[in-house]
Amino acid sequence: MRCVIIGNGPSRLRFRLEDIPYTTFGCNEIYRDFRVDYLLAQDKEVLHRMQQDNIDQPVYVAQSSYRLHRDNTYTQLPDMRQIRFPYTRMSSWLTGEQAIVLAAQLKYKIIDLIGFDGGVQSIYRKDQTHAQPTLDRYNKTIPKILEYYPDLTINISVDNLRAH
Length: 164
What we know:
Blueprint: E1 2-6, E2 23-27, E3 38-40, H1 44-52, E4 59-62, H2 63-69, E5 80-83, H3 95-105, E6 110-114, H4 135-148, E7 153-155
Parallel strand pairs: 1-2, 1-6, 2-3, 3-4, 4-5, 6-7
């Protein structure tokens, strides 16, 4: 089984998301532009915007964020689903990294990543003063994921999905 995880780095704009033929996972505010099969978020402000926008699909949230926000009326969503991880620290990882773990838990074996640029830019917010995430971070977290899911293939460069 193959899936695509869609990040929010500027390289994502080179892709026609509606042409992706696989199951899609998306992070944070992607719901504003494209409906993914699995939507993940954890940041309080992002969850609040989802609430304000009356999001009508399940939102997958790391266990720690789920416990923090499930009963909070500021961030209450109609269908917030908890993700549990095999390694406790994964709960504090970035949403894109959590999406990789959720896809692995759902038995996807090939995961294509688009819009995972690393750096200071995101298509949904102003540039930050420091990189979040850095490419070095992915070089640490992806091997950790592969320790738990050794049969997984993670493709970071997926030109075959690019818009023509």
